[in-house]
Amino acid sequence: MISSLRDIIDFLKSLDELLVVDIPLSPKFEIAAALKVFDGFPILFENVAGYNVRVVGGICSSKELVGKVLNVPFRTLHDALLDAIGNPMAPTITDNAPVKEKIEKPNLSNLPILTHYERDAGPYITCGVVFARDLDGKFQNASIHRMLVLDEKTLVIRVVPRHLYYLLKQAEKLGRPLPIAIAIGLHPAILLAAASSPPLGVDELHVANALMQNNLKVTYCNHSEILVPAESEIVLEGFIYPDKLAEEGPFVDITGTYDFKRSQPVVEIVEVMMRRNPIYQALLPAGIEHRFLMGFHREAQIRRYVSRVVPKVKDVRLSFGGCGWLHAIISIEKSSEGDGKNAILAAFAAHPSLKHVVVVDSDIDIYDLNSVEWAIATRFQAHKDLVVIKNVRGSSIDPSIDEKKLLTSKMGIDATKPLDKPQSLFMKALIPSLSEVKKKLEDLKLVSKQRTRTNA
Ligand code: MN
User: Is residue 94 exposed (0-12), middle (13-18) or buried (19+ Cβ within 10 Å)?
Assistant: First the structure.
């Protein structure tokens, strides 16, 4: 059973899906560069210059891989996540936790925390899940935040106004710091759940446990009642001080552009738990893994909303070029004129940050952008198939937005075939025996087997 990051590393090795790098690379820029070169592939750095901690990245880079790890066909992964959010399950609590093999005083300079981009403010933890409890002890929250290292035991955390922000405001009212635990080196189900947005009060660890078919074990922290995954590689225990602020940024976020400096709350680490020979998990900002994790729950929601207004949704994708956030491509089985436009409206309702959406018929492969462009070229007429909505609330991560009012324009392209014309006009021409001949040529090694990535 795959229940930890280590199990996944072994599993990926057995599938020959893990790139292992053993030349020395520095956590300052060099590992980020390698993650960029091999964006979309899981990669293990065994020789991190100046550290005896290994670094792994790219584990959640494709739907196929995450599907394999979760034992779910990747085409049904959207439903699996929504089902887990709808039916969360409490994980088993254990004292016998591998993450408690070593307990140390905080010394962040012992961890190979990466500095990623040229103008980033410094080393950032980017794949850390922050756990906190509400002050009535009723529920626990998990969310992913970027955290800039200030010194050996201090971080500054970017907290957008969502659930952790709410818990922090609760603590502020009572004039106390908020106890937190930051777990690094986790099973993809935990990352996927923490990157999703279930309603406040739904514990993302329970969602992860449902995705893991009830195989998640958790353990209590030493300085709070917080539960963390027992097989985390590293857990940093500490407190967020709502009234202590520090400068956070600049930092590259999902768009691949620099987010600006802000005053954000400080985190003080009081203790570190870790496994023996821990593995530090990295995540390249604006890389495929980042966009996959942030966008996946939104894709699932778009699928659900669009399914309510058109008879059949084949697939939904937030494309990589659209930052995994701003652009959706949706394939549907159209049965009435107007289905395409209804799909556009439902998609905007499902994901308020969405800016552009293209709707195509089910014969178009949404993972092949040439195919999508071909549909726009041969099936779309701007004067009747284009939807433009002006001055709506958009995503603050889009640098082209009106940054004061956060207003944007949204565009939907209905590139589905019109039903009032002969459908044969739009048929994709095929060559008989193409796949058989391709197979023969591949056997002769004349055609290189290109790996296709559904999320790239
Ligand atoms: Mn939450």
Answer: middle
Backbone angles phi, psi at 322, to 5 degrees: -90, 25
CA of 142 to the centre of ligand 1 (A): 6
Within 10 angstroms of residue 382's Cβ, the number of other Cβ atoms is: 9
- Own/partner contacts of 366-373, CB < 8 Å, gap of 24 or more, are 366/315, 366/316, 366/317, 366/329, 366/330, 366/331, 367/317, 367/452, 367/454, 369/319, 369/321, 372/329, 372/415
- Whole-number pLDDT of residue 450: 52
Output the CA 143–ligand 1 centroid distance in Å.
Answer: 6
437 within some domain: no
Per the annotation, the verdict on 339 as an active-site residue is no
Evaluate whether residue 111 is within a structural domain: yes
Question: Which domain range does residue 370 map to?
Answer: 289-418
Mean pLDDT across the stretch 155-180?
Answer: 96
Q: Cα(232) to centroid of ligand 1, in Å?
A: 19
Q: 166 CA to middle of ligand 1, Å?
A: 10
Structural domain contains residue 426: no
Residues of the chain with pLDDT > 70, as a percent, come to 98
Residues 238 and 265 in one domain: yes
What are 414-451's pLDDT values in tens digits? 999 999 999 999 999 999 999 999 898 888 876 655 55
| Residue 214, in any domain of the structure | yes
**Residues 293 and 319 reside in one and the same domain:** yes
My answer on whether 296 and 242 are in the same domain is: no
Q: Which of 39, 253, 259, 315 is catalytic?
A: 253
